[in-house]
Amino acid sequence: MATWLITGGAGFIGSALIRMLLADSDHRVVNVDKLTYAGNLESLPDAEGHPRYVFERADICDAPRVRACFERHRPDVVIHLAAESHVDRSIDGPAPFVQTNVHGTFVLLEESLRYWRSLENSNLRRFRFVHVSTDEVFGSLGTEGRFTESTPYAPNSPYSASKAASDHLVRAWGHTYGLPAIITNCSNNYGPYQFPEKLIPLAIQHALAGRPIPVYGRGENVRDWLYVDDHARALRLVAERGAPGTRYNIGGDSERRNLDVVRSLCALLEAMHPGRRFATLITHVPDRPGHDLRYAMDASTIEHDLGWSPRESFDSGLEKTVRWYLENQHWVERVQTGAYRGERLGLGVVA
């Protein structure tokens, strides 16, 4: 048994990882989450009262609170997932992204380093800091090629710039201070419990409500889609077997144009709701400013080193996702507050 401290554990990816650890491991899990609009304990229905689970409501920018969490729980592994993550929101208001993603990561690194230096012997050697980042730090690809772990950084949005900065901090703390840190960069996640501001759950909700399903620009932008449970499994492998100082790209090997994603989603909904024509709701809207054309991940390093590969194809993962949202509309209603009800973001008008 080891103790895993997971920041952002009430969010989309963090909650998937915690559900997996509680179901399939003996690890003790400490969930550190500020509970912003996209973080909700509703995503952890079986965690409350679990003997191996503890929740700490804390902001990673609050150094005394973070230090208290380390001292109280004595983690063996830190998985850093807490982040502001929605590109559109970063365009409208970048300040929270700099605060949480850059300063918050700095605070967590400082407290992790202080704590790690206090450890002895085997505890010192087995400690790991896993920083979870995005493929967006690499910028935009043309029609050919994939991002590798050595691709130069070229972030184009306030969100990706803040994540690139946090990646550089983690690398520097590992290189300069010896902190046993690992960086992962993942492609677009999708699956159950994703807050309905991202493309797939937003499209599902608009379709079910009979509202126009927005597709930015011509819908030609390409993303590599990764089912969230496959990502959680990869993060567990990285934490348990990954080498400090290593970087791992995690991708789903499932490139799709945004327009094709929405068309596939509508076809699934039409098969599940005979007689309804969801595809007629697809509506092209003005593109996002600075919208990257294409992302694609080369995940051969993690496949070769750790034996990981995605288990879900895009088709199988999308069907599971659509069915989950259809069966869990109560979750969607409970997590959506008056602060966000599916409106268009990311036109840069607020900033």
Describe this structure in words.
It is built from twelve helices and twelve strands. With 351 residues, the chain is α/β, with parallel strands linked by helices. The chain has a domain of 231 residues: Rossmann fold, CATH 3.40.50. The chain has a seven-stranded parallel sheet, sandwiched between helices. A three-stranded mixed sheet has the order 7-9-11. α1 links the parallel β1 and β2. α2 runs parallel beside α4 and α4 packs parallel to α6. The chain is globular, with a radius of gyration of 20 Å. About 2% of the residues have low confidence.
Descriptive terms for the model:
351 residues; alpha/beta; Rossmann fold; 7-stranded parallel sheet; 3-stranded mixed sheet
Query: How many beta-strand elements?
Result: 12
**Which CATH top level class of one domain fits?**
Alpha Beta
Give a short account of the largest sheet: 7 strands, parallel
Structural class: alpha/beta
Strand order of the largest sheet: 3-2-1-4-5-6-10
* Global mean pLDDT: 94
The CATH homologous superfamily of one domain is called: NAD(P)-binding Rossmann-like Domain
Elements, N to C (H/E)? EHEEHEHHHEHEEHEEHEEHEHHH
The number of helical segments is: 12
Shape: globular
CATH architecture term of one domain: 3-Layer(aba) Sandwich
How many whole angstroms does the radius of gyration measure? Answer: 20 Å
Q: What oligomerization state is this entry in?
A: single chain
